[in-house]
Design goal:
Elements lengths: L17 H5 L8 H13 L3 H6 L11 H9 L1 E11 L3 E10 L4 E13 L2 E9 L1
Length: 126
């Protein structure tokens, strides 16, 4: 995956951006950075990272097999961060299903920092 632009649309190379988080080399420094890395995790089928970065209070509502299925069955086209505060991020994730239909997942996500680590808590679909 050398010289591939990062899936999170940061303008950086994947290996210098979200891959560092997905591999556990660094942790997210902001809620937005975690959200961007989670989008990249969907694009690269890292269901374990998605589960690991989901807050323990809501992790029971997610299933790694379902996450992997959604991750693999869609082509992730673009991420737009519309608004970001310290603990909330509004974004649009553009993707295409196996039938070629294009969709936009518009979400207002809440994040929480505990013991120096950021976690996804939940999201409101818009």
């Amino acid at each position: 995956m050398h010289n591939v632009n990062c899936y999170c649309c940061s303008g950086k190379l994947f290996e210098d951006c979200c891959n560092l988080l997905l591999c556990g080399i660094i942790g997210a420094s902001t809620a937005e950075e975690l959200m961007r890395s989670r989008y990249s995790a969907f694009a690269t089928q890292h269901a374990d990272y998605l589960m690991r970065t989901t807050h323990f209070s809501t992790r029971k509502n997610h299933n790694s097999d379902d996450i992997m299925e959604w991750s693999v069955s869609n082509k992730w086209l673009q991420l737009e961060v519309l608004n970001a505060s310290e603990t909330r991020v509004e974004f649009k994730a553009h993707y295409q299903d196996t039938a070629g239909e294009k969709y936009v997942h518009h979400e207002f996500s809440t994040f929480k920092k505990e013991d120096g680590n950021w976690f996804y808590v939940d999201g409101l679909f818009l």
